[in-house]
Amino acid sequence: xxxxxxxxxxxxxxxxxxxxxxxxxxxxxxxxxxxxxxxxxxxxxxxxxxxxxxxxxxxxxxxxxxxxxxxxxxxxxxxxxxxxxxxxxxxxxxxxxxxxxxxxxxxxxxxxxxxxxxxxxxxxxxxxxxxxxxxxxxxxxxxxxxxxxxxxxxxxxxxxxxxxxxxxxxxxxxxxxxxxxxxxxxxxxxxxxxxxxxxxxxxxxxxxxxxxxxxxxxxxxxxxxxxxxxxxxxxxxxxxxxxxxxxxxxxxxxxxxxxxxxxxxxxxxxxxxxxxxxxxxxxxxxxxxxxxxxxxxxxxxxxxxxxxxxxxxxxxxxxxxxxxxxxxxxxxxxxxxxxxxxxxxxxxxxxxxxxxxxxxxxxxxxxxxxxxxxxxxxxxxxxxxxxxxxxxxxxxxxxxxxxxxxxxxxxxxxxxxxxxxxxxxxxxxxxxxxxxx
Length: 437
What we know:
By secondary structure, the chain is mostly helical. Helix content is 64%, strand content 4%. The chain has a three-stranded mixed β-sheet with strand order 1-3-2, with helices on one face. Helix 7 (154-171) crosses helix 8.
């Protein structure tokens, strides 16, 4: 019996060492699983009779230890399975005023477009986090996160999160879809297109969730500022259920946005951004080269799953159309001021460039004149050389004409003597006297 007791004591020490093992504790803490200690687990089991032999005691202990770790591994497997399981099968914690990102993901995954938006464009996933420092929902582009104030109803949270997910989807295209990268009139139109598109996507998600039994988002839209867009979407969808997939319902909601009073607030926001832009949109020197084209509009209207709600129509929101008219007088005045300042700056830059070009041209002319004077001075200083060359050639011609005469006359002899002297003078003109020594 003493030997058996010694074995039991050794087993207890072994179990304690296993329990205190750093790797074991770190792994259990990492998985966040409440694991019962091995000693408590063994003590909770009915102990084997002390009359059992040592081998039975050891077999019993090994069996219980193996069972203990099997149970813990099973808990870990269940925990991992719950994390990676299909969100539709997970239970919902849905309580208005206590919004949770995990629940929002579960609900949004019941919509096909919502699921694709959560997956992100080009695998650029966006994370959902609770941020009570903001009013409702806001996208942080640099960190690719959507902050959510938890004190909202789930209907409002779903709609606003879907709208920001669509905004994050479009933000991966860079400055092409940045309104302030365009001229003032085009910037207002681009801002309208983007805002309308984000609302259309959110309404589309709310409609799909309504068909799956999640009515909270659709009810919120019907009682919110986008009710006219939702009604236009529903009216077209009820005419023919195929209008949802082919984009006609979304197109109806898109056009309804441009006919609403919401345009005034949307335009005011982007015009104030123009005036307050610290990068110098109004008073800067940027040159705007991008324009809104039909291809760009079709690119914006491309929904996840290759659904486009503007390809089937020729009426697109382009510059100099009804889609770009600013009807509010206050916004029109501010926009006129922005355009005036931009045109004034451009004119001023053109005048400065012309003055600079004029000065450069005058400088070049002055340098040319100086060079011309230098050439004239060189010619004047070398008149003797030029005149002598002409005279020398004339002498050569005369020599050739009188080459047939073998007995030169006295005049010819004098001419030849003079020619030889002229040749010597030419040599003296081109030879440096220092070279003679």
